[in-house]
Fold these 2 entries.
Entry 1:
Amino acid sequence: MRTPAVWLREGGLKSFGWSHKSTVRGSTAIASLQLYIAMLTQQQEVWRDDQLQLVCEETYNRLSEITGLSRALVAEGVEGLVLTERIQVEKEGRNNRYIFPDFQPGGNWCKLPARTLYNTRSRHIEAFQLFHKRTKCELDALKLFLFYAANRDNYSFHSMCSFETINKKTGVPEKRIPAANAFLVSTGLLMNIGKEQTQEGGRKKESNKYFLRGNREFFVGSKVAPDKVPATA
């Protein structure tokens, strides 16, 4: 699914944190990012007023089913996304329409795996059922998942970035990145991590490679020729 990428690459994820200084905090921040992912996997591209927009029209009940969040947390999470200007909400009767205002169809978007995130009946995102919505590690993991998606280039199955860059762009402290990565792997949101390589003398040759769940789907129907298919993806 096409996903607005500029805010993910340029530090927007720092708005979601655990301290009182964060715009959206704690379990609400976790709910917001889970809902953002859920809405993107259910979005449609719609022409409105001669403009192509990303629109999601799922109900609170459906968003609750997809994410495993209570209706109260769905409401708080939606509020967090509105507060950070990640979505706009339009009312239509008793239902909401969610619009992604920073979507640019001509570029500055990335791909997010959609179908492979769901269970076989496509009713919920499997990995989210393993979240308790109460820990920094879970919030860190969601931020890293979105950043890895935004950081992947069009020719690769993987994203490649250093701990320093991850910290700078997401606000996740370097010492917490390994635990967040491990959580992503344990929930299946990350399929594999290719460890960084070093040259003689201990100098880093390249950063870790991060393979998102469903990375093969990035090239289905694409005219772009990807790099070598990873054996573990």
Entry 2:
Amino acid sequence: MIDTHSHIYLNQFDEDREAVNQRAVEAGVKAIFMPAIDFNSIPQMEKLSHPEIEFYKMAGIHPCDVKEELPKGYEEKLMEYCSKDDFYAVGETGLDYYWSTDLVKQQKESFHIHCKVAKQVQKPVIIHNRESTGDMLEIIEQEQDGSLSGIWHCFNGTVEEGKRAIDLGLHLGIGGVVTFKNAGVDKTVAQLPIDKMMLETDAPYLSPTPKRGKRNEPAFMKFTAQKLADIFDMSLDEIDEKTTATAKRLFGI
């Protein structure tokens, strides 16, 4: 399995990262993609290694870390990182109106910059979206010229929003929320194509049932994979095979 979205480099894992990685291996996780929160995430990512896990870096600034003034040379620095062969995606970026709507203009500007860079380097853009779906899809529509690809991370939209996202060239990142009893995401996902989905954890956040409320980690992705197997009446191996192949195609590995 491939965890397409994990902040495994954060300090929440500093005390037991080796054990966390070993549990991931035992659960069948072969690769972990690491979205950045800001540029300071990158040195943390570069410290990680494990003989049985491939770690893949991204560069970007999370919408909740966008400031009132975007840093000088921000686009150039993003381009510099994302142009490198050892960076596999641009992000995470996107919009978040849950915590605050004070900097919506700046969030949108940052999101546009990430999309522009993603198109230039021909790598997927990783999209955080919280209570901002309409604006998020509108920006993707504005930016889509046939060369933009990406993932709607932690997909929790409606069937119509999911279909629109797929029509606009996005894939859907399926995480722990699909296992939540009252979230309804499982019923939505059931009506969308499995071939456009990828597994993710968003570790250390959003642990799936039955680990909800605990620190999330890549090994817990097996619960999300099992939920997808139940939804689509497939075996766990089939879900692994399909989501892994989709991730490999999108990220070019």
